[in-house]
């Protein structure tokens, strides 16, 4: 029986892991420029209560070359003002971690721009921008 898969394809099977890896690499192969300075629609500013003091809200970061990752520093984390390790898996098929120092968490709470690089997984990493 003839192979109808084309000149460069064989009929051998690949594992789900190999398929996922090759799919991610194929998607990333077309990425030439990454703009990480854009804000995310989910980023919110601190609000003021009736007494005039600021209450914190969650702050979402923009993930470069994104394929389902979500990076959010919660209001509780901002209020605690300590170092944080964020799991940014979101709806992606793999995870990355973003490590923020206490100073960076405070800057994010003050809506200052913070840019960090995630851990490497599945052969790549991401730049995450909070502003």
Tell me what you see in this structure.
- It is a single chain.
- The protein has 131 residues and is α+β, with helices and mostly antiparallel strands.
- The protein has one domain (16-130).
- The chain contains three helices and eight strands, in the order αββββαββαββ.
- It has helices spanning 16-29, 75-80, 102-109, and strands at 47-48, 54-55, 59-63, 71-73, 84-87, 97-100, 114-117, 127-130.
- Strand 3 (59-63) and strand 4 form a beta hairpin.
- The radius of gyration is 20 Å and the shape is elongated.
Query: Which H/E pattern describes the elements?
Result: HEEEEHEEHEE
- For the largest beta sheet, what order do the strands appear in spatially? 4-3-8-7
Q: What portion of residues is helical?
A: 10-25%
Instruction: Give the overall form.
Output: elongated
Radius of gyration: 20 Å
The main pleated sheet reads as: 4 strands, antiparallel
Provide the domain count: 1
> What's the number of extended β-strand segments?
8
Mean pLDDT: 78
Could you tell me the strand content as a percent range?
15-25%
For the termini, the CA-CA separation is 59 Å
Taking pLDDT < 50 over at least 5 consecutive residues as the criterion, the unreliable ranges are 31-53
Describe how the helices and strands are arranged.
Layout: H1 16-29, E1 47-48, E2 54-55, E3 59-63, E4 71-73, H2 75-80, E5 84-87, E6 97-100, H3 102-109, E7 114-117, E8 127-130
Antiparallel strand pairs: 1-2, 3-4, 3-8, 5-6, 7-8
Summary of the model, kept short:
The chain is α+β, with helices and mostly antiparallel strands. Helix content is 21%, strand content 21%. Strands 4-3-8-7 form a 4-stranded antiparallel sheet. Strands 1-2 form a two-stranded antiparallel ribbon.
């Amino acid at each position: 029986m003839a192979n109808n898969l084309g000149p460069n394809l064989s009929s051998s099977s690949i594992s789900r892991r190999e398929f996922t890896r090759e799919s991610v690499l194929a998607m990333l192969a077309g990425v030439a420029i990454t703009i990480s300075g854009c804000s995310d629609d989910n980023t919110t500013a601190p609000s003021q209560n009736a007494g005039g003091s600021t209450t914190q809200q969650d702050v979402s970061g923009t993930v470069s070359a994104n394929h389902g990752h979500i990076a959010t520093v919660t209001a509780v984390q901002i209020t605690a003002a300590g170092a944080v390790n964020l799991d940014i898996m979101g709806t992606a098929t793999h995870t990355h971690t973003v490590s923020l120092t206490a100073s960076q968490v405070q800057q994010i709470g003050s809506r200052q721009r913070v840019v960090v690089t995630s851990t490497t997984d599945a052969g790549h990493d991401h730049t995450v921008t909070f502003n």
